[in-house]
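Exam prep: given the inputs below (a chain plus iron/sulfur cluster), describe the expected output before reading on.
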Amino acid sequence: MMNEVNPWSSSQIEDYERMRKEFGIPEFNFDMDNNIFARRNLIIGHRDFSKIYESIKRKSKFYAMTGLMPSGDMHIGNKTVIDLIIYFQSKGADVHIAVADLESYATRGISLERGRQLAVENFLLNYIALGLKPCDFYFQSESAKVQKFSYILSKEVNMSEMKAIYGFEDAKRMLEIESPLIQASDILSPQIYGGPAPTIVPVGADQDPHIRLTRDISSRMNIFRLNTENGIEISIGGNDDPADAMKIAEKTLRSNNADKIYKNPKYRTVRADGENVDLFNLTEDLAMAERTINKFSTIAPSSIIMRLETGIKGGKMSKSVPESTISLNEDPESARKKIMRGVTGGRETVEEQKKLGGNPYACPIFELYMYHLSKDDKDLGSIAEDCKSGKRMCGECKREAADRMSTMLVELREKREEARTKIDQYIRVENEL
Ligand code: SF4
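Solution:
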């Protein structure tokens, strides 16, 4: 499964349980304040979400980060991540959104000018229409800060690792190979330039490799490595004399109420009893304290990992299969035709459907309701029940989905027009290279 799970694969992930086991992804069991995706089990796992959970609970600083590749329209599969970013923004997140125009230039041959136009017209306007408040929206190609940091962090990764994670072959061009490092830089840059703090990156299951790589890079670039499995142990990385770092670690431990502090210069470790220590505060304080000796210290980013939406024709929903997805800028009539031609979990004939019922959990149309078209659980529950009992026929079910989709698209179209006057509140102005 290793190389099948990556952002460029067109295959749908069939077995999330296996994926969780293979990549060590914990199940998601956090209370997200009744968030629709959490309560419908559409979040299949997470990495280190407890940091975000605590940040929200304590009302402390955290970042939310996502990116978009401007290679076409924003489709409904991209909407889920933005719905989550809007949710985290409502919980206090400082939001950053990267336009991966260098990646679309490298992998799809889209000029930077066209990429900019697509990012604003097809994505940003929809983000604002969906409810995103002002945030930091920037272009990789214009961000000297992100590019500079990407160059620095590339020291931490070698080619074997990139091949193992992404399955890169020798014929790959260097900018394509560089793209994941630019994305790692996107994810860590808010902390590099705005100070260390937890960062949430909502991703589809196929994007998990980026998160694994970025978490590893973050930990490799840090001097302090905190281990809390048996008491508290801070090991000091790097090749410099560890004396200064050990003093800073000791001072940070003391200010966090640690007892019985023991420094071992030979093994470059500082140990302590952690009984009275708040680990959330200690993690943040250490990253902050490390800044005096290492300006690249960060807290490893967290993620929530979403179940991938199935395309209307089956398989992975992707903009490269236009008949299988619906663009948010699409004409409602065209969206209706796609839905009416979609595959379902229904039976071969009306008689069989009435007698045996359908299977909503193997039905892309039902997924449309679950992700986008039914906010009310009672409504969704009755669609599922009526399907299973044979009371609901696929034709009428598709018609209703098409009507709801049409209403959503018309509303978005109107809101996009209002959004046009606000885009200056979002786009970052940085020195062009
Ligand atoms: S009735 Fe609706 S939910 Fe059930 S299988 Fe048909 S299209 Fe899917």
